[in-house]
Protein: Nramp family divalent metal transporter
Organism: Promicromonospora kroppenstedtii
Amino acid sequence: MTRTAAGPRTGRARLFVLLGPAFVAAIAYVDPGNVAANLTAGARFGYLLVWVLVAANAMAVLVQYLSAKLGVVTGRSLPEVLGERLPRRARLAYWVQAEVVAAATDLAEVIGGAIALNLLFGVPLVLGGVITGVVSLLVLGVQQRRGQRAFEGVVTSMLAVLTVGFCAGLFFSPPDPAAMLAGLVPRLEGADSVLLAASMLGATVMPHAIYLHSSLARDHLHAPSTSVPRILRATRVDVVLALILAGSVNIAMLLLAAANLAGREGTDTIEGAHAAIAGTLGPVVGVLFAVGLLASGLASTSVGAYAGAEIMSGLLKVRVSLLTRRVVTLLPAILLLMTGISPTWLLVVSQVVLSFGIPFAMIPLVKLTQDRTLLGEHRNALTTQVLAWVVAGVIVALNVTLLWLTFTG
């Protein structure tokens, strides 16, 4: 009897140990770029675009699972597999576009941290960017000295902090339940809502999260006795739980803006939205929101630097320390902050650059995970493959739409 009762508990404990990589990758879904988009959507269109975030999160679950599955089954990351299969010139060209995407990612995240420090302590943006970079160096130092599990713990703790920071306002001003449910019905109102929906949907799946998740899943597994099917089951649970959390945070931000910022002037920037939230709900909620933004910036910039190192290692077979990567990728963000250009405009530009990188990550991932010679019996089933191509097509089409609308005004 004792042996029988202990079995399920042991199984659940082993399952729990296998969780973690998706919660690190999920940071990409609640970075400062997402904050800006969600607040703008709620402030300008109320509850209209709730369905966009629900649809985006559903697509992200499939994409991140495929990335993790590639790492679990092959024992190699997506950049490593591509590095093995691409000829030298194609590999170098692919690496260049991936590095541009990594730089754009870092720009958005450093700016988010700098804005948060400015809101909390009045720190100038340039100094705030430097501080964000230094703190992210300390976070990356945890990975270097204590290993991936410790790094996952730190990043997941930041995810918890930003969840509280971004969701706290809903307890002070709950959304309208009827309007929230109505927002689940897909519909749009005018060209501006189309542009914003394309931005929210098309920029949800970040290229660096796709590259990194395969690496995280590969490195997380230190139990060779655990069967691949069992690991994949745990991976599905990991991805679903992590993205439910990230999706809930995104929806909470939109609901907070819809309930408190709709129709108000000056909410088209993060600073303006923060001022409106603090003015409407009180300084405590304003501080909590800024703390959430700070945690978002610090966590996402650390994860972004980690992704950049994995991309370089996989494609070029050159391993650069995370600390070196952090210093190199921080410099462009600091220089751009020194120009005095609007931080919100820089965030928008960074999201446009990221849009260019989506097809280069999505299409190879879908092709590789259907390859029998690579994944064997674990390759995508027909239904999964059809869904994966549909999701890839939708995301790529929306990013093309976003780019076209951006450049044509």
In short: Residues 1-6 have pLDDT under 50 and may be disordered. The chain is about 80% helix and 0% strand. The two ends are 70 Å apart (CA to CA).
